[in-house]
Design brief:
This protein is of the alpha+beta class. The chain has eight helices and six strands; from the N terminus they run ααββββββαααααα.
Length: about 280
């Protein structure tokens, strides 16, 4: 409880794990009776930042539970959020602490702001859940938040690149420039009458694999399959069509590169924060 409380209540610690904020700073507090005021900011790129203010409106303890309530607002004209409020609740359970949050806010920019919030609100919910799991990994396993972010970036750069390659090869050569792929299929031993069907089936498999890499939360098995398929198909192609070894961007080098990307994504997929690890809706009990 004490470690979790400090990690969430001390600004210099809080900003290390919370993806939603890059700066949090307490303002001087005239007395213990006054709410604790704070400033926060989020960098949005290109040297821009959105800033706001808030205050802790109360803390209480009851039967081992601890609750911290707060209000927040922003006078920054670029901020979608005008004002809001929420709380953090810390509930001791067997073997640990259940960390709960609930917050809501009002937007600016009228109907346009409310329309933008349809996309922004789920994004904030995802960032909250991802950050909570990042905090859990730090407190339970000692995984530094900076390392969690680095592993996540490496994993997704490699994984998105693999997904792009599978989607490109499934759509462009096999569905747009079909003739060349049908010819390769016949040279690989597929009967001429079945080559178009084989090419279409291969396109479906590659597109499905690319989409799965994009959408599935846990893709370790698909990454291993991607690496094996990339090398295997490359070797098969040059065995049946040896002159491909002399072609630019020939199958073996592409296959090895794809296998390396899969290996990098798998290696980085170690104790990654996942929003899905958090309950996004309150359980029935």
């Amino acid at each position: 409880m004490d470690a979790l409380w400090r990690a969430t209540q001390a600004p210099e610690v809080h900003r290390r794990w919370d993806l939603r904020f890059t700066e949090i700073r307490y303002l001087p507090r005239p007395s213990e009776a006054e709410p604790q005021r704070f400033l926060y900011a989020t960098r949005i790129g290109f040297g821009l930042r959105i800033a706001g203010e808030g205050e802790s409106t109360g803390e209480r303890q009851r039967d081992g539970d601890r609750t911290s309530a707060l209000r927040f607002w922003s006078d920054d004209a670029r901020s979608l959020i005008r004002e809001g409020s929420g709380y953090w609740r810390y509930v001791p359970v067997d073997g640990g602490v259940r960390f709960i949050t609930l917050y809501d806010y009002r937007t600016r920019f009228g109907p346009v702001g409310r329309a933008v919030d349809f996309a922004f609100r789920p994004l904030m919910g995802w960032a909250t859940a991802w950050s909570f799991d990042r905090l859990r990994l730090w407190l339970e396993l000692g995984v530094d938040p900076a390392l969690s972010l680095e592993r996540t970036a490496v994993h997704w750069i490699a994984r998105l690149t693999l997904a792009f390659i599978w989607l490109y090869h499934g759509i462009v050569p096999k569905l747009v420039g079909v003739t060349g792929e049908v010819e390769i299929a016949t040279r690989l031993g597929v009967p001429a009458t079945l080559a178009p069907v084989f090419t279409a089936a291969a396109a479906i498999v590659e597109i499905a694999l690319g989409l799965a890499l994009l959408l599935l939360p846990n893709a370790r098995a698909l990454l291993a399959l991607s690496g094996a398929l990339a090398v295997g198909l490359g070797v098969l192609a040059v065995v049946r069509i040896p002159e491909l070894l002399l072609a630019p961007f020939q199958p073996v080098t592409i296959g090895v590169a794809m296998a390396a990307l899969a290996a990098v994504a798998l290696r980085a997929d170690k104790e990654l924060p996942r929003a899905a690890s958090c309950l996004r809706r309150a359980p029935a009990k």
